[in-house]
Amino acid sequence: MSFTADICNEQELRKIIPPYHQRMDKRIQTTLDHYCLEYLGQATLACIAFAHPALGFYYLALNEKTLLSVTPEALNICLPAKSSQPAFNNGQLSGLLTEQNSCSLYFFIPGIGHGLRLNGFAQANMQTGTGESTQTITFNVLSAYFQCSRAAVRAGLWQPVQTADMQTKVFANTNTTTLTDDAIGMIALAPYLLLLSQNERQATELSPRGGQAGFVKVQDNHILLIPEWPGNKVAISLRNILKQKFVSLSFLIPGCDFTLTVQGEASLTADSRVLSGMAIKNKAPLLAIAVVVKRIVIQQEASLNSALVWLADNHKHAGQLSSFSRVMAEHINGKGLLGKASHPLVHSVIRHDLKNLY
């Protein structure tokens, strides 16, 4: 089935997704405040996504050997080479990062729905370890903010999984330009993905999407369709796609240590023929992101196992760190009386959103 990419500018987008309240922009921090540092102190997994297509996605288990230091302005991370890509080595990494490559990071605390998003640029710092096995990278922070838990809740990301059963699923390491049977199989199993987009200045954003396993649809074996469900109306990723079509997707399957990366050109559609096929509980999404596939990479990510993210015994509980509603109230309304007074209202809005995911 063909479809129409009928959303070509922000004016058309805002006919479907109403403008957001500009106060929402205040949630964005220009340095890592104490809430960000608290989250980083308990995060056990990071996804790092570079603007340069050759660098792609990294998943990194966080410990004292990988997250070497954190300041309000920067993080130093020990980044292993990607052994699954023989052509990729640390010499190439250093060369690509000499130009302060734009990148975004997404941090996970297993068991906690909301995440931490950082945007900035990366620079190769120094060689560590033996040979060319590792590289210390400095990530300079330009913006930081917290991501609500809707994508994780839709995906059931931290629900118990039969880890032993999932880890029997083995996929062939792949680097090609078309969707393979393994790639299509992984998309059908994946309830969660991270979407890397860029604006016209090549600044990046890394945003999660979630749903029931297989919520991303494969059309004609070369186009992916991602439903867009209600959010905070800021629509950064969608606005980026209107300016810069190139996107990268990283698919996650809970309990599985293989990831699928898809790179391609994205557009936005409100074609009812497309949207009706993705309805949940008789509700169709507001619009969909269509991605024409240009490259796929399947690789095994040891970090997903070493970070122990899928083991329920290692999951954190909400009471172990500041609540998302408290952080949002303070970031949007400040630390004073208004921030404290708005906390119950923000909490109520978040609870409403989590009861109305579609």
Q: How would you explain this protein's 3D organization?
A:
- It comes from Thalassomonas actiniarum.
- This is Pyridoxamine 5'-phosphate oxidase putative domain-containing protein.
- The protein is of the alpha+beta class.
- It has a single domain, classed as Pnp Oxidase, Chain A (Roll).
- The protein contains eleven helices and 15 strands.
- The protein has helices at residues 10-13, 34-42, 90-97, 150-155, 163-166, 181-189, 236-243, 272-276, 302-306, 324-333, 337-355; strands spanning 45-50, 57-61, 67-70, 74-80, 101-108, 115-128, 134-147, 174-176, 192-198, 204-210, 217-219, 223-228, 246-252, 258-269, 287-300.
- The strands form two sheets. Strands 8, 9, 10, 11, 12, 13, 14 and 15 form an eight-stranded antiparallel beta sheet that branches. The chain has a seven-stranded antiparallel beta sheet with strand order 2-1-5-6-7-4-3.
- A hairpin with a 6-residue loop joins strand 5 (101-108) and strand 6 (115-128).
- Helix 10 (324-333) packs across helix 11.
- The longest helix is centred in the C-terminal third of the chain and has 19 residues, at 337-355.
- Mean pLDDT is 89; it is low at 83-88.
